[in-house]
Specification:
about 325 residues, alpha+beta, Diaminopimelate Epimerase, Chain A, domain 1, 2 domains, 18 strands
């Protein structure tokens, strides 16, 4: 079997996109899991954080499904959604689109570059859910907002939110970021445990000057990544909830792969407060290639006709800028 892949990244969070809108690949979910395990392995000539499957939708311009490197399916991926938004916008010749995801249909559109020369897209991150049974998180509380959880840490306070991926967020200082606390905590809550039966994304966040944050994320099903779009969105939301950052104003969010920009929206509707986040950042293409493999053993693939896009050089300039900001923040 042959499949065409487009390698892309958002904030250094890298993926392979597979276009099922234009190609009739006839993939089963079992095959999607196998392809994620085979193509995403960093031990091969490919390697990525996940696969993005783009298909037709009866309710939107396109449908996105996300499979992590371990073969699990994620309900959403903010960095991946930006890449899908670019691909679909260019495929359909549109400036703005609606993308069907597992939990919601989300708007996406082209945006002003966050750095000169970078293809930039703005995507909606919602719904926002605080009820712990939605993550799920099993403790004797209905919500967790900047509170300590004895089973997790004696020193840190956590906020739990689903957007709709589940996130556990702690605002920390540089000393904590330099320690192994995040690694130990993340491995615990994503291994056999009674609090997070399905695992959870864990972010440590540090506030910076001039409406900015630094976010480092251990992503469920992946491990430490350069960036996680929904984690940066959720962290911006929590910063606004804790009155560390304002609503409706741009927040620059730095990560180990670069930076994005977030806007947190607070809406009052029929006596209820609702939140959503706009995630704005790059959608950079690296290369496209054709991969041939045996259906029964996709890990024995061969890569042919690889073509570079030449966009990464511009992104490296943003990467260097972000690296300088992060190093100063951790000093």
């Amino acid at each position: 079997m042959k499949i065409k892949l487009t390698k892309c990244h958002g904030s250094g969070n890298d993926f392979f996109m597979i276009d099922e809108m234009s190609h009739d690949y006839q993939l089963t979910d079992a095959m999607r899991r196998k392809l994620a395990l085979a193509f995403c392995s960093r031990k091969t000539e490919l390697g990525a954080d996940g696969l993005l499957f783009i298909s037709k939708s009866g309710a939107a311009d396109a449908k996105m499904r996300v499979f992590n490197a371990d073969g699990s399916e994620a309900s959403m991926c903010g960095n991946g959604l930006r890449c899908v938004a670019r691909y679909v916008c260019e495929l359909l010749g549109k400036e703005d689109i609606l993308v069907e995801t597992m939990k919601a249909n989300l708007y996406a559109k082209t945006a002003e570059p966050i750095f000169p020369g970078l293809p930039t897209y703005r995507v909606e991150i919602s719904p926002v859910l605080f009820e712990l049974d939605k993550l799920p998180m099993k403790i004797d509380k209905k919500v967790l907002m900047n509170e300590q959880v004895e089973q997790l840490s004696k020193d840190l306070s956590f906020t739990a939110v689903a957007v709709p991926n589940p996130h556990l967020i702690a605002f920390v200082d540089s000393r904590t970021l330099k320690s192994d606390a995040q690694k130990r905590l993340s491995e615990y809550v994503n291994g056999p445990n009674e609090i997070f039966p399905d695992g959870v994304n864990v972010s440590f966040v540090k506030t910076l000057e001039n409406h900015a944050l630094y976010v480092r994320t251990f992503e469920r099903g992946v491990g430490f990544t350069n960036a996680c779009g929904t984690a940066m969105s959720a962290s911006s939301l929590v910063a606004s909830l804790l009155r560390l950052e304002p609503y409706e104003e741009a927040i620059d969010v730095y990560n180990n792969g670069g930076k994005v920009r977030c806007l947190v929206h607070k809406l009052e509707e029929e006596g209820r407060t609702q939140y959503s986040i706009d995630l704005i950042g790059n959608a950079t293409y690296l290369y496209e290639a054709t991969v041939s493999f045996d259906d029964q053993n996709p890990e024995t693939f061969t890569v042919k006709d690889q073509k570079e896009f030449g966009e990464q050089a511009r992104y490296r300039e943003l990467e260097e800028h972000a690296k300088t900001v992060v190093e100063k923040a951790l000093a």
